[in-house]
Amino acid sequence: MGAQEEHDTARHRFDVADAAPLLLDAHGTVTGWTRDAERLLDYPATEAVGQSVAALLAPEDARRLPEITERCRTDGSWAGLLTALHKHGRPVPVMVRITVAENTDDSDHSERWLVLLSEMAQAPGWDMSRRVLEQMVTRSPIGIAIVDTDLRCVWSNPALEQFGSAPAQRRLGLRFAEIQPGLDAEAIEAQMRRVLETGEPIVEYEHVGRVRSAPHRETAHTMSFTRIDDDRGHPMGVYYTVVDITERHRARQRLALLDRAGEYIGRSLDIRRTAQELADVAVPALADYLTVDLLESVLRGAEPTADVTLLRAGQQSVNEGVPEAVVEIGEMAAYRPGSPPLRCLAEGTPWREERLDPLAAEWATGIPGDRRATFLELGLHSVLVVPIRARGATLGVATFFRRRRQEPFDEDDLNLAEDLVSRAAVCVDNAWRYTREREAALVLQRSLLPHRLPEQDAVEVTACYRPADELTGLGGDWYDLIPLSGARVALVVGEAPGHGIGAAAAMGRLRTAVRTLAALDLPPEEVLGHLDDLVARAASEEGAGPETEDTDSARGSGCVYVVYDPVDGQCTMAAAGHPGPAVILPDGTVAFVDLPQGPSLGVGGPPFESVEVALAEGSTLALHTDGLLARGEEWAVDAGRDRLRRALEKPASSLDLRCRSVVDALAPDRPHDDVALLMARTRLLGPDQVADWDVPVDPARVAEARKTASRQLTEWGLEEFAFTTELVVSELVTNAIRYAVGPIRLQLIRERSLICEVFDSGDTAPHLRHPRTTDEGGRGLLLVSQFARRWGTRFVPEGKIIWAEQSLADPPD
Q1: d(CA 334, CA 327)
Q2: Which sign, positive or negative, has the C-alpha torsion 313, 318, 320, 324?
Q3: Residue 500: its pLDDT value, please?
Q4: Phi, psi at residue 302, to the nearest 5°?
Q5: Are the C-beta atoms of 380 and 291 separated by less than 8 Å?
Q6: Helices 702-716 and 722-739, interaxial angle, to 10°?
């Protein structure tokens, strides 16, 4: 065979024109050599012909020859990489093709092999025949197609048929929009034009649409585009591949939806808002219409009960206004017995129906008017019902519907819905537990705060309390008004540290302790001193230190204690770690009392100090907690006082309206911290309500004191109290004359009760005795205690006052 014949044979069989051919006999001896082979290995034909091919190969490849020969005899050909030896010993990597050579000599039946050598340094890899290339593209599972410069299909492989398009022959000459009308052909052809214009390939262009093979379901594909040029470099068309990535796309969507759910759901501790967030996240990503129904007890923050009353807590639709809803948010979602939502609620397992009966009525019952409809009328065709479960308890159900999307819910959708609902369930459970604790704390707070302030004539009083929106801000703010002896009143505002139920409990203990100490008629600084000792001792017994966070401890509490006397208008006050009160003067100007700040209760420090101020009648005291001075996270005393001053200066038609307007102005509807404001407008008792006399230290003057008191009662029209009052005056004055020294003063006060006070300069308090029948004395205070509603002793700087009080509402018999 001549060189030209060998060259033509090589091109015909292998379609490689640059290979160096040579011939071997059955023993592997070179029988034919070409100029290309000489150029490759530098052996002239005279030296190469007659040599064994093994001599032309590297030793390791020469040892492979028997194996290669056997493969050729079995398969008829062999292809692979070998290392040949240049004449001067230099290794030459070559690509080798060996195949049976056609023998044109009928008399010679010996075996011949045609060998094609291609130098690897000049070739990118295997040079493949057209048949091999056709196998690659036709058998590829990846869809492949070629379009011309007019973007009309000129070739495609069978794999494209998996997308539902016509067979390859019927696709010829068609544009993309004619092959796949359910896809965005305009966007895809724009990519093709870009490749034709720039020559730069586009790799992994993703698009989502509906192919002919799945017209009711969105599928995702990735496409890569490469320009094809002719031998002169002119564009001939675009070669593109198509890969179905629907599962990967859906998995990505699921992860994105779950990530969004983790970020979006549970941003607050409001149960209804959390339920609505679940609906907002799932529509339209998973469902076209979603309802969230929660147990009524859960929405109240109570423990789940056997009562399965469901309330609509959230719903969303792809259609504006949620036209599918037959129940509005907040209404009861009543379902027919045995309906899927109730079964899921009872069993705690999900339920899926790929195709709803279109003529079946929706499951809700008790819907008024024409709001009931069939699933066909509502346009709903597929459903998932997933129970909302957390910590072993079922809190409600979430129902997913499909309307616009024609594909029904499948098992993957159910798994995704369960993951989504399980995440939301934890948030709902947290919100429910938060609501339960917050409601419990509020109930405890309200039960410990005064339901109504006592009626008295010393001050006109009103109060406003606004709890914090969050449990973390719900503290132990409290206020109180305590009637004292002598028509006086104590005004108290305080704040226990911590949050929630613990702070409310600490507040209750503080309020009880203050009321107990107030009954002793102690000055404000002494009340706070005793209260400080009680708190410190209780904290020590409970093991709570200053560095220990113990929400049940009252250590660190603040309190301001004010005593107002309507007889002379004197006001005495002291504070423990708490802002001093503001005073609105009768002319409307606002001032803040310069009150020495004592330490917080229970933390130790210098003794408490009090100040005494004289208040004109009609002045208004404003006692408040620090939540009224703060705005959000901002805390600046001066700025807070300026805002409070401006709010207090605004007039109102009543004290109650003024109090509420101040709180509304300074505290939002959902404050970060508790707010308490107690406002008291002072009154003075008129001359016709108070009468006093000096009594000489002479037992003979007791009778005169009785007569003076009796005449005063007659002037007041209280003759029916004359006998008991004479008895009380007689015993108290006699006791003062007998045991005290210095001046004695008798005072009668007519308020809501009749008060008799006897002042002396002594510093010892009388004690009630229970004399025997044979005793000649010791019955005075016992008689007073029997005729008076209450009696007692209070100490003043000059001495003490013994007082007795009779109720004017209950005249003596």
Answers
A1: 9
A2: negative
A3: 73
A4: -95, 170
A5: no
A6: 150
Beta-sheet strand order (sheet of 289-295): 310-317, 289-295, 393-402, 382-390, 351-353
Report how far residue 499's alpha carbon sits from residue 472's, in angstroms, rounded to the nearest whole number. Answer: 6
The answer to whether residue 372 scores a pLDDT higher than 90 is no
Q: How many C-beta neighbours within 10 Å does residue 591 have?
A: 12
The gap from C-alpha 802 to its chain's centroid, in whole angstroms, comes to 60
**Contact predicate 494/475, CB 8 Å:** no
E strands, 365-407, are 382-390, 393-402
Can you name the residues that pair with 517 across neighbouring β-strands?
A: none
For position 568, what pLDDT does the model report?
Answer: 93
Number of H helices, E strands in the chain: 22, 31
CA distance 296 to 330: 10
Structure tokens at 314: 């959230």
Helix locations, 740-795, DSSP H: 780-787
Task: Specify the DSSP class assigned to residue 603.
Answer: S
- 722-739 vs 780-787: helix axis angle to the nearest 10? 150
Better-scored residue on pLDDT, 158 or 316: 316
What is the C-alpha separation between 85 and 40, in angstroms, rounded? 10
Exposure string of 155-190, with b = 16+ CB inside 10 Å and e = fewer, is: ebbebbbebbbbebeebeebebeebbebbebeebbe
The pair of structure tokens assigned to 328 is 């509005």
Q: Between vectors from CA 344 to CA 338 and to CA 345, what angle results, nearest 5°?
A: 95
Runs of H (alpha helix) within 519-654: 524-542, 637-649
Distance CA 40, CA 37 (A): 5
- H helical segments located in 97-184: 130-139, 168-171, 176-179
Identify the residue whose tokens are 């613990």.
502
Q: Is residue 567 very low, low, confident or very high in pLDDT (cuts 50, 70, 90)? A: very high
pTM over 0.70: no
Residue 699: which region, alpha, beta or left (left: phi > 0; alpha: psi -120 to 50)? alpha
CB 640 within 8 A of CB 665: no
